[in-house]
């Protein structure tokens, strides 16, 4: 039996790595109802987890449409003694399973603290009437016309029309309550210590900074200075000036923001980047974060918890604060697909060693002392406090913010810390064996808050023993007990129309399908919409890709992670026709030969090719204007700057391709498509996720090509 242990573990983890839409949110309402038929109400919102991921094996839930989140009391069933013992063991195992998922708590613990938003069915009204801060107003949000042409807006799919852009009324209605609370948070941070310290505080150089890095730490001003009206107005003016070049928008938290191709199995909440090419700062909220607010079955507590999460994320992009509202259902449960609701919120600290590698802190020298055995060290200690739903529901009332204005920042603090869980960092010497005052080993996590009683400690000991027992239960697991994620079968009534359209528009500057490599689904769909000549809904296009993938014709398609990856495959295409000379004559004005030589020299330079890989990765398409500005910014190519530079550069691209250029060809209109090999750069620069994905995509394409060749050979 021991020999089967690694095999079962591999099966569980393989299922846990599959990316899919866990609750069918991107399907039509009818298909979603069929997808979740027989599931509990909690599972329809929070999914039925499958396989093993996030260090939790979900086999205990079976395949009966259970979420694993229902509060359960450990009450023995009447009956024979052996059956009672078996029932108690099942409940104990479920108790341990929930503790592993929910930061050491059971669903019953959280429900008792009124911290489960899904079970709070009380009506709570959003009563905020404040205007939205100018930096968040609708004109500050990116629409598709503002995006480079090699990226498309993300379709909403499911039961809603349109795209994830703020000029879509569906999206703006979703955003408005989030922006109202973000406005109040930002306005009050302007008055109080954190943001004031960042912008007006005292700065000191960090001692022993690495060579070539100027690291600083900052300190708050005195309260008397912060509350002075003139300083508050000055800070507000400063915020407006700073945000004059900030644009907000949406992206998929799985994607590379430059190309739209997925770059991770787990979604981020948001990203802020200095878009040097377009001379603006972009704050992009993930669609996965906002997706749950499109549901019509959320309780008011669930809505407000998710709105708060978006609001805090927006303000977080201005400056990170000490408190971190962590969802009970983290992004890993999205499984590469749309986001799930929070379920509830846990309060914890940002300033722990979990975030020591966060962005600009990556190369910072350690400023904290090494933790000592038997000592509490806040940097290596994680405290988790469930937040009652009533507390964050009050954030959406005028009365709460009136108290803040009257009594100051203390009125914002959550004063409901009743019972928490404490865990230690792996770097803490006590992490392996935590012993309490009575000499009892209570493991890595234990109840925290009021002074512990012996019964609390005993429960922690029991939790520890149960956890060990559940982990060892390989002898009762079988590979066939694990369920694979459901497979969606697509139908496409417009298949013939779409195929005819693609065949008739496959040439360069149309859809350029003959030279197409890998594209994100939103980008490919934008090419079709920009080109015109057919009306397709996002759902029709996705259904077409699903059928093409099943037939192994025209395109290979991965719907997840993120919003889809499309790769052209050779099967199913009729022979292509060559481009006529009149095609070029009608396009090109005179191109500057010196500029053509400059571009050729740049593209032959390995450092330029390497920099392009760092910028756009596996995507071989770039908006011509973006490419031009990138060369100017990154390599100082002043020849491509100045008046009429965009038209001149376009002519250089077209003439270079006409003359048989080595490094690129024409994509759809206004798109340059690179053709030089990038395998060497992938080996040097790509992360493990990208290398694995590209290997899978290429092997799949090879299998399809070999199969097609075999069939043609037999037919011949």
From TrEMBL:
Region (Disordered): 442-463
Designated name of the protein: 05119d37-b852-4558-a45a-3ad1aec9e0be
């Amino acid at each position: 039996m021991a020999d089967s242990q690694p095999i079962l573990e591999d099966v569980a983890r393989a299922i846990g790595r599959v990316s899919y839409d866990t609750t069918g949110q991107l399907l039509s309402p009818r298909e979603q109802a069929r997808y979740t038929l027989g599931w509990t109400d909690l599972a329809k919102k929070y999914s039925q987890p499958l396989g093993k991921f996030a260090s939790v094996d979900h086999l205990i839930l079976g395949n009966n449409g259970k979420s694993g989140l229902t509060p359960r009391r450990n009450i023995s069933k009447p009956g024979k003694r052996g059956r009672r013992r078996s029932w108690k063991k099942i409940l104990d195992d479920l108790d341990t399973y929930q503790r592993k998922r929910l930061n050491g708590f059971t669903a019953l613990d959280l429900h008792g603290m009124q911290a489960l938003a899904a079970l709070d069915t009380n009506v709570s009204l959003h009563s905020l009437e404040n205007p939205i801060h100018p930096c968040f107003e609708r004109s500050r949000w990116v629409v598709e016309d503002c995006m480079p042409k090699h990226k498309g807006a993300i379709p909403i799919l499911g039961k809603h029309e349109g795209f994830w852009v703020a000029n879509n009324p569906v999206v703006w209605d979703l955003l408005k309550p989030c922006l109202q609370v973000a406005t109040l948070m930002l306005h009050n941070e302007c008055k109080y210590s954190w943001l004031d310290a960042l912008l007006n505080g005292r700065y000191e150089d960090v001692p022993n900074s690495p060579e070539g890095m100027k690291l600083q730490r900052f300190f708050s001003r005195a309260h008397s200075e912060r509350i002075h009206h003139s300083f508050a107005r000055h800070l507000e003016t400063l915020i407006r000036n700073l945000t004059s070049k900030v644009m907000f928008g949406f992206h998929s938290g799985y994607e590379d923001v430059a190309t739209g191709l997925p770059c991770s199995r787990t979604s981020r909440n948001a990203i802020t980047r200095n878009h040097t090419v377009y001379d603006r700062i972009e704050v992009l909220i993930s669609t996965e974060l906002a997706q749950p607010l499109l549901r019509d079955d959320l309780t008011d507590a669930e809505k407000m918890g998710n709105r708060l999460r978006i609001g805090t994320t927006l303000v977080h992009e201005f400056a990170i604060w000490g408190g971190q509202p962590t969802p009970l259902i983290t992004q890993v449960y999205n499984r590469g697909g749309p986001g799930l609701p929070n379920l509830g919120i846990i309060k914890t600290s940002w300033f722990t060693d979990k975030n020591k590698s966060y962005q600009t802190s990556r190369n910072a020298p350690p400023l904290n002392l090494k933790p000592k055995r038997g000592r509490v060290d806040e940097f290596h200690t994680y405290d988790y406090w469930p937040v009652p739903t009533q507390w964050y529901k009050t954030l959406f009332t005028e009365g709460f913010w009136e108290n803040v204005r009257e009594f100051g920042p203390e009125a914002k603090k959550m004063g409901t810390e009743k019972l928490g869980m404490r865990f230690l960092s792996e770097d803490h010497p006590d992490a392996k064996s935590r012993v309490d005052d009575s000499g009892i080993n209570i493991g890595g996590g234990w109840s925290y808050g009021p002074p512990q009683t012996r019964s609390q400690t005993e429960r922690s000991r029991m939790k520890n023993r149960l956890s060990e027992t559940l982990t060892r239960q390989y002898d009762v697991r079988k590979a066939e007990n694990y369920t694979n994620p459901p497979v969606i079968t697509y139908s496409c009534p417009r298949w013939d129309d779409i195929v005819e359209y693609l065949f008739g528009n496959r040439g360069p500057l149309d859809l350029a399908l003959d030279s197409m490599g890998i594209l994100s689904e939103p980008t490919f769909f934008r090419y079709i919409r920009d080109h015109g000549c057919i009306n397709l809904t996002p759902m029709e296009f996705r259904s077409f890709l699903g059928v093409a993938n099943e037939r192994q014709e025209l395109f290979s398609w991965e719907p997840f992670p993120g919003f889809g990856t499309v790769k052209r495959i050779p099967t199913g295409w009729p022979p292509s026709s060559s481009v006529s000379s009149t095609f070029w004559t009608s396009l090109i004005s005179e191109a500057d030969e010196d500029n053509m030589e400059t571009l050729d020299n740049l593209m032959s330079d390995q450092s330029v090719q390497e920099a392009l890989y760092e910028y756009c990765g596996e995507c071989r398409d770039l908006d011509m204007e973006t490419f031009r500005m990138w060369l100017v910014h990154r390599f100082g190519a002043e020849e491509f700057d100045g008046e009429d530079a965009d038209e001149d550069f376009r002519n250089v691209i077209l003439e270079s391709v006409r003359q048989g250029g080595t490094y690129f060809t024409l994509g759809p209109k206004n798109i340059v498509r690179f053709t030089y090999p990038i395998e060497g750069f992938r080996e040097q620069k790509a992360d493990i996720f990208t290398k694995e994905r590209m290997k899978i995509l290429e092997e799949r394409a090879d299998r399809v090509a070999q199969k097609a060749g075999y069939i043609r050979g037999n037919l011949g």
